[in-house]
Every structure is written in C-alpha cells, then in structure tokens.
Amino acid sequence: MGRQQLSALDVAFLCLEQETTPMHFGALLMFSAPPAADLRRLVTLLGERAGRLPPLRQRVRSTWFPPGGATWVEEPGFRIDDHLALHYLEHPGDREELIAVVAELMARPLELTHPLWHLEVIGGLADGGFAVLAKLHHAVCDGPGAVELGLGLFDGFTAPEQPPAPCEGGFRARGLAAARSASDVLTHPARLIGGATKAADLVKQGYEAAGIFSAIVGGIRRLDPASPLRCAHWPRRRIELSRLSLSDLQRVRALHGGTINDVLLALVAGALRAWLSSQDCDLAGRTVRVLVPVNLRQGGESGFGRNQVSGYLCELPVGEPDPVKRLHAIRSAMDRNKAAGPRRGAGAFPLLADQLPRAVHRIVTPAVGGMAPLLYDLVISNVPLPAVPLALGGAGLREVYPFVPLATGQAMGIAACSYGDAMCLGIYADPRTVPDLANFADSLERALDELDGCVETTERGRSKLGSGEHREILT
C-alpha cells in the first residue's frame, strides 16, 4: 500500500501536541449488556476489526520532501494488543467512578511514534452494560472522518477502502514524473488550459488566504487575565456527561427556527451564564466567543484520510438574561456566518493553516499554539451519528459522548453527538479551573428546561387565542 502524505493542517495538529495539551479527541460509547458476559471476547472482536482498518495500522514518518512533511507508513511489527486495554470498575461501578476513570485515560497522551489511537473497554458498570473509550489523534482525521472510520468497528459494517495514495518516490522518480508531464504538455498543447486553471486556483487560494489572515488580525482580542475560561494547563483532566432529549431540542427549534446546532449553542450560553455568575463575574453585556467547527466535505466524499475542516466564530450573549433572546441572537450570528461561508472570516484559520508550508508549522506552530485564546474562548463541536441502530458483538449502542482536545490556555471544550433520541454532550475541562463541572452539566439541562418552558407557554397562548375572550382582547 502506497504512502499518504499528511496535509499541512494534519502536520499542524502534530506540532500542537504538548505534554499538557495532547491533541487527541475521544468518544465514550455506552453499550447495553453484551449477550456473552466475557468482555475479553469483545476486546478480541474489536482487535480483529480495528486491524482491518489500514489507517489504524499506520504511524507517522517525517520526510525530507516536502520539507517538514510527513507520511503515513505501515508500522513494522504492528501489534493490535498495544492499542487495546480492558478495565473493570470497582463495585458498584457507578457514574462517578466511570467519569473518574475516563478522565484519567483521556489525559494520557498517545505515543507519536506508533499508530495514533487507542481503545479502552470498560466493564463493571452498575447496569450490566459496558463502555468503550476511543482515542484518536487529530492528525489522523477530524470528527466526521472519525465517525466514518469508527463505523468499521460495529456489527454489519465493512472496513472502508483507503483513499488512493498520491504518487511517491525519490527525487529521481519525481524528476521522471515532471519530465513526462512536460512532454505531455508539449505534445498536447490544449492541456495547458488545465495548467492555467490550476494557476487560477492558486490565485484564488491566495486571495482567500489573505482575506482569512486579515479577518484573524481584526478578530484578535485583548486577553482578560481574570477570565475564568483561561488557565495554565497541567496534565490532569476532568470530564462530565450530559444527556439531553433530542425531541426537546427539535421542539424548541420548530418554534424559533434555525438549526439544532443553534439551540445547542443557546443551551451552552445559558449554562455558561449560570457558571460565570457562580464565579462572581460581571455579566452585563458579556459575551463568550466560541469556535464552531465546520465540515467541508461534499456529499458522498470520504470522511477520513485528512482533516477537512473550517470554522465559524460565534459570540454567545451570556450577558442576556432572556433565554429566547439569547437563542435569537445566536441564530442571527450563525446565519451571518453561513451567508459569508466557511471559507471567510477568522474562524476559517484551519484553511489558512492548510496552505502554509509544513516546515513553517514545524518551527512556528508550537510557539503560536498558545494564542488560541486571542481568537476564541472554547470549542463547541457537534458531529451526528448515522440514524441507524449500531451494535458491537450483539450489544446495542445506547449513547456516545465525544470529547474535543483543549488548546493551550483554554479551560473547557464541549462536543455533542446525536444518536437516537439523545443529544449527548461530553464536557472536557481543566480540573483546577472548573472544579464544579457537574454543576455546569446540570445547568445545560436547566437551560433546555427554560427554552422548552417557553415553547409550552407559547403553545398554551396560541391555543387560548382560539377562544372568543382572547379574540375580543386582540381586537
């Protein structure tokens, strides 16, 4: 199998890796009780399926050309057992113990000299079920790519084919390829049109990059040293899980318009408002700027193989006390982002990173990685699963809680995943900065109750408008 070059953005994620800010994301998958009580059988099954996925057998190898670049290569002597582990919770296997174990496992960096993933099977849950914690480095792919790759682990799915690798070889091979290309153009002059098109694309990319850079410079803020959302990282992490009803979110969306993601952002804004208030922060006119990742793939395009992501920056109006006004403000802000498109604005900085030379990332990115708080306060990601029942070894998947890596200087990240009638949120935080993460998770539910209550009030009001008494008041 040929080697596949890492894109410039893939290399950037490698360069952002530090001991206290590992760049892997994760997902905690909760399953019902397996048909067979022996979880070792499931570990073996996971190993067999993971071993059939080519990206999971590959590691990163640096290259001389392009300078600072890297390729994915098959790891010699690859051992699937090095990437699988089985844990059992102590009795009674409650939620608090599960959260503590997952937080400890998520905080452990992946070894960059080996394939960049790990699966942890966790048994001993009080309800008889089990969990799987999947860890995957952001250099491998982004969230949608991880979903496509991960489907190969479930019952009834086959491993997706590896995307075709680009032509490889040494300087001689590349020289021969260039000579053949030149000869081809001389013998087929009409193909110069294709070259002109590529040149036009380069000009377009340059113009696009200049616009993004200008927006980034204009979007830089003065740091607030007293902000509770900033921190100096240390190796430990804390997580919290929040399960919301997708039907409730859809009911709110149906009344107020917009998207499920708009409603989700409004819930986070409400929870942040409550948390900031508990930190004695002045809320008057306050906003929290979040990065909302955007998938750039077209319909039917393969999800894995590289990062294909941009982003929108959105100001969450946490200073607004009215939950409906918060939702409307967020919807308007996201509508403006979508009208501009994912290739414009400061949130599109991943596109700019993907156009930089890889050697620049090797030198500059580790130093500028701590500048993320200048642009945004936290990441809020939402990656849905396919609307089909999923199972592992006959055990049905119930919930999926994803986690996003924390950038240097940022105290919290939130990721969501919809599956069935559940919207599951994984909250990932620095424990010294956000020790009361459970209260934050509870605030998400209260924020949904607030908006859902507004829906019920509005629906009751509409029903009352059908009576003669209220028609007289309106006339």
In short:
The protein is α+β, with helices and mostly antiparallel strands and 475 residues long.
What's the β-strand tally?
Answer: 15
Q: At the first level of CATH, what is the class of the largest domain? A: Alpha Beta
Instruction: Count the domains.
Output: 2
Largest sheet composition: 6 strands, mixed
- CA(first)-CA(last) distance: 76 Å
State the strand order across the main sheet.
5-6-7-2-13-12
**Strand pairing plus helix content: what structural class?**
alpha+beta
CATH architecture annotation of the largest domain: 2-Layer Sandwich
Count of helical stretches = 13
Could you say which overall geometry the principal axes of the C-alpha atoms support?
globular
Output the helix-strand order: EHEHEEEHEEHHHEHHEEHHHEEEEEHH
Strand coverage percent: 15-25%
The amount of helix comes to 25-40%
